[in-house]
Each structure stands twice: as structure tokens, then as C-alpha cells.
Amino acid sequence: MAKGRILFVNQEIAPFTAETEQSLLCRHLPAKLQEMGREIRVFMPKFSSISERKHQLHEVIRLSGMNLIVNNCDHQLIIKVGSIPTARMQIYFIDNEEYFINRGGALTADGKLENDTDERLLFFGRGTLEAVRKLAWQPHLINYCGWFSSMIPFYLRRINKENAFFSGTKMVITLVDDAFEGSITGGLERKMKNDGATAKDLRLYGESDYLGIMKAAITYSQGVIIGSPNAHPELVAFAKENKRNVLDYIADRDEFFTRINKFYDTIIGKIDN
User: Fold this and answer.
1) Angle between helices 233-241 and 210-220 (to 10 degrees)
2) What is the per-residue pLDDT across 136-178, written as a single tens digit (0 to 9) for each?
3) pLDDT by residue (tens digit) across 238-248?
4) What is the set of domains in the chain, with CATH numbers?
């Protein structure tokens, strides 16, 4: 097994967010892979429900300050960092005054999509990759989990396709039980086009409901991990029908993580370093 650098991009991570099947998976998997010898970095959104004081978050000045253009407007990228001492693991947080401060979580308090969810997804996806590039830490593989991270593959493959920094980086999506109701409004396709989306990209994102954006993400990815027995069956079927490398869910966590580690090697292939 090659050591390999794995970037985890997660929507939820315990203890920063409430304990759910997803947040616990995204808490323990990176830590276990680090114990197995992988070099890891972990990113997530800085939702305002995450207490900076409780978790002792602080801004990473050398990574912050860049302006990202979303919908023809400049938005400042702020990077914060916290840690899980028991796991010897740092977590990087993507923050911004318009999209995250005083905005709760991925959904509103009553479980609805925010009016600017499209822009929040675009900012988080692009902001994460820009922060990783500023870290000068090139991942062999990105494992992203949760629909809020669904724009990561679009930006990696389309916006950064000419940038040698991410050359050869593979992508794996973890499917969990996180479906939302309704569709993302606000003109996602138009805003993606402003960021260089091709006609093919726009066809993939033609349906902006949960199944639509997740199928697009699967299409861009080389591997799919079924991270929950309750992952949407239509997405699982879509991944297999489209001949993606699929790792099925296993209830035994230790065995599951061991298989995920081997699965990464299958996706990454030979590492020259």
C-alpha cells in the first residue's frame, strides 16, 4: 500500500455538528485512515451553529483573504481551523460573512433550502480547493461526503483541469442518508456558466434537486462508497449502472474502514512518490 494523501471534504463532522450517522462516519474515518498511515487534511463548512469559542477555532491568516467571485460579486474567503485532540486531527473550516455567518446549517431551522443555496455550494466547493492549493498540499484523492460538497468535482475537473496542481487527483463520493426536499433555486446553471461550465456540465446539472446534483457528482467521480444502509437507492443504482467503482456498505465499522483503505488504493493506482 502506498501512503497517499487523502483530502476529506465533509458536510458534517462530530463533535462540531450534532451526532448523526453522517457526522460520526466523517469524524472516525479520517482519524482511522490517519492511523493506517495516510496523510490527511479535512475540510467542512463553518456553519454558524458551530461554536467558535467552544471548539477554540481561530482564523488561519495566511490562507484567508482571497476574494472569490460568485454571481459576479466578490466574496471573501475566510479559513478557520480547529482540532479534535483525541484523534490528533485538525479540521479546516470554510467561512464567509454572507454565506455562513448567522446562517445556521446546510438547511434552515425548519429544514428548508436557503434562497442562495446555489451560491453557498459554489463558494464552498471552490473555496475548499483554493485553500488546499494555498496550503501547497496536493491530494492523491478527494473523498467528499454530503450534498453540500457536491460542487467539489465540478470545480476540480472543469475549473482546475488546466492547473497542474490537481493533475491526477482522483475523486470518491460517499453516499449517506442526507436527502433534502425541493430544488435549488436562484439560477445554478447560469452561475456555473460564469465559472466556465461547459454544455456537458450544464446538462448534468439540469435537475437541481437532491438526486440531480448527486447524480452529477457521481458522474464526475471515479469511486463511490455506500456510507449508509439508508443511502438513496436510486443513487446506488445509478452508480452501478454507470460502472463506477462501488464499495458497498458494511455494518462492522473496523472492517468497513479497512476495506475503504484498500478501495482508495484501487482508485489512486500507483503513486510515484
Assistant:
1) 30
2) 999 999 999 999 999 999 998 776 666 788 988 999 999 999 9
3) 999 999 999 99
4) 5-43+117-268 (3.40.50.2000)
DSSP string, the chain: ----EEEEEES--TTTS---HHHHHHHHHHHHHHHTT-EEEEEEE--TTS-HHHHT-EE-TTT---EEEETTEEEE-EEEEEEEGGGTEEEEEEE-TTTTTT--SSS-TTSPPPTTHHHHHHHHHHHHHHHHHHHT---SEEEEESGGGTTHHHIIIIISTT-GGGTT-EEEEEE-S---SSB--S-HHHHHHHTT--HHHHHHTS--BHHHHHHHHHHH-SEEEE--TTS-HHHHHHHHHTT-EEE---SSHHHHHHHHHHHHHHHH-----
Single out the residue of 122, 104, 112 nearest to residue 50, CA to CA: 104
